[in-house]
Amino acid sequence: MLSILRSLVQEVNSARDLQEALDIIVSRVQKAMGTEVCSVYLLDPATNRYILMATEGLYRKAVGQVSLAYSEGLVGLVGSREEPINLEDAPSHPRYRYFPETGEERFRSFLGVPIIHHRRVLGVLVVQQRESSRCFDEGEEAFLVTVSAQLAGVIAHSEATGAISGLSLTGEEAHDVSFNGVPGAPGVAIGSGVVVYPSADLDVVPEKPTDDIDQELALFEASVKAVRGDIERVAKRLASQLRPEEQALFDVYLRMLGDDAMPGEVANKIREGIWAQGALKQVVQQYIRHFEMMDDHYLQERAVDIRDLGRRLLSHLQEGEQKHLNYPERTVLVSEELTPAMLGEVPKGQLVGLVSVKGSSNSHVAILARAMGVPTVMGLVDIPVNQLDGKELVVDGFEGQIFASPSADLRSYYQAICDEEDELIRGLEVLKDKPCETTDHHRVSLLVNTGLMTDVVRSLSHGAEGIGLYRTEVPFMIKDRFPSEQEQREYYREQLEAFAPSPVTMRTLDIGGDKALTYFPIQEENPFLGWRGIRVTLDHPEIFLVQVRAMLKASEGLNNLQIMLPMISNISEVEESLHLIYRVYHEVREEGYDIHMPKVGVMVEIPAAVYQIRELADRVDFLSVGSNDLTQYLLAVDRNNPRVAQLYHSYHPAVLQALVRIAQDAHSVGKPVGICGELAGDPGGALLLMAMGYDSLSMNAASLPKVKSVIRSVSREWAIQLLEDVLLLDSPHVIKSCVDLALRNAGFGRYLRPGKSTAMAVSEAAVS
């Protein structure tokens, strides 16, 4: 059964569209299980009805015609219960619903399993049998459940591909197709999708028509000629080193490139109006599918040769392709994995949004996007990238959501948000030089998180009082080697000079987890629980010592440097780090540099540190909570993983209780405590943190004006009462709603970004 399942998944994965995928499923499952009927019913999001989409055994004319209400019939029962139903005599069941156009009155045994993807019921997979004496056994039921689970993602992807193309399951026009990912950079953007794909990757080549068939034919013929020449040259060069049977492999390649072989089929596809790269993709994938399905091992291996040839041909077709991309005035850049270089290719002023299948909110591109103020969504694992080229897209960087082909209502809804954001920021500029102080005179320092000089420029224009977190890994990430001491010194001096005499807190190198250096790869089973942060630099003191030396020398004459240690989990790490810092301090002083010993603090971002605050505070000058990592470690949720991202919630009661304890314990021993993380930049979160007693809040520059406006408009007494109220609640969603309601009642409803439910309500209203 495992080999059958593997073969089925491979074949379905290479299907051209949803209908072909479903036809393959019903055909192969019917054959594998030896049943008379196999059918797939999909739930149409537009009508909330199950539609018979493919069948092997029922009348084919019923496909697309038979539909059931959400809870109607046995199919509806399987979907609503979200579990298999196995019946020996289906017609006798009270929920049985008979459709004469299917011809299913002949079949009595029934086994239906739900198709579920990310908690969403996509449809129901059904097998039926004529004999009433046959009940599908446990093994068959388990096999069908396995098939359903394995194929749910493929069906979801294919369904989304069709929807993005503008068609619903019923063939009607589709709008407002949404995909959920991870927020990368806040804001809303509306623009045209431009897909940038990795070179020579057939899987991500977009499907596009061509207006110039002759040009596409010429391009393809040139690529075939070039690949043939490459192979002949390699064969000739290696002729003296290979045996005849090995030399024959090159002949196989050359025969595949003959006009009556694969190139002929690609040319025919191009003549049908498909651009050369798309035609090549279709033919190569069809060849691969056929070879992989064969029983003969030798022929199965030929699929590898076909794939290799396809990549070679595609590589020649793509030469110069990326350089000549047409970037519209409002470009939303889309890719499997965005790189900083891709951002640099877009003409200045035309990049309005970013969408990436891979990556996280802490990736280099996300950091760049926040610095540039470009709304970004990352981690869109189920999105059919190649279908977004040229489509109008709405990028919601607040919620980590995108909409393809938005309706007029949804577009105007998000355009209003864009306009409100611009107007709000302009209105808050008057607060730039005013202190962040409550109406009852409680003072809070508002700092910024930075990594690039562009962050600094925006931060100063928004009235930041210093840097609460300078990510020193950024200079390391934009190099192809470790930066030298002098290079680091120049980076650090820029940041220190820009904010002098205000404090600049520099976090020592924090790599590992989802922050990788190409020249220092860390391969681990579970990187977030592995070698990262201070653990790396203490194991490599040569890196730590050079970095601290560069920081200290950069601070000469300014003396506004503070050093912060990341990922501290025990006291010995602090003591060892302090020993190295003091050692470097004395060495730099002996070299003649007139510097002051900087304040040293630790980041509280591991649960173990929460319970050692007093001991840590005895050894350092300040503490700073890394709320993003602390939240994900407390909740055991990787916030960059879209599959579990909905479980990550900064307002979780456990997170708030931990934050209260940290502030109380730090102040009990007289040490200041700040926080840097997404919660600090959220107006409601900032109020709660201020009420808890946090001395400083560090955030992205864009969040600073809103947070200052809210804090200046309330009393600390009011905020403390709000905190006491929410600490009695046991649901993060209820807590968030309670805080939002308090903000609205206080006149700050305009600061609250509409959530997904609001956007979807607008979308559904437009559809209906």
From TrEMBL:
Keywords, comma-separated and alphabetical: Cytoplasm, Kinase, Magnesium, Metal-binding, Phosphotransferase system, Pyruvate, Sugar transport, Transferase, Transport
BP term (GO), one: phosphoenolpyruvate-dependent sugar phosphotransferase system
Entry-linked SUPFAM superfamilies: Enzyme I of the PEP:sugar phosphotransferase system HPr-binding (sub)domain, GAF domain-like, Phosphoenolpyruvate/pyruvate domain, Phosphohistidine domain
One GO cellular component, as annotated: cytoplasm
Family annotation (InterPro entries): GAF, GAF-like_dom_sf, PEP-util_enz_mobile_dom, PEP-utilizing_PTS_enzyme, PEP_util_C, PEP_util_CS, Phosphohistidine_dom_sf, PTS_EI-like
A single GO molecular function term of this UniProt record: metal ion binding
Chemical reaction(s) catalysed: L-histidyl-[protein] + phosphoenolpyruvate = N(pros)-phospho-L-histidyl-[protein] + pyruvate
EC number assigned by the record: 2.7.3.9
Principal cellular location given in the protein's record: cytoplasm
Cofactor(s) needed by this chain: Mg(2+)
Subcellular location as annotated: Cytoplasm
Domain GAF: 17-165
NCBIfam families assigned to the protein according to its UniProt record, in alphabetical order: PRK11061.1, PTS_I_fam
Family to which the UniProt record says this protein belongs: Belongs to the PEP-utilizing enzyme family.
Protein name: phosphoenolpyruvate--protein phosphotransferase
Species: Marinobacter salsuginis
Gene: ptsP
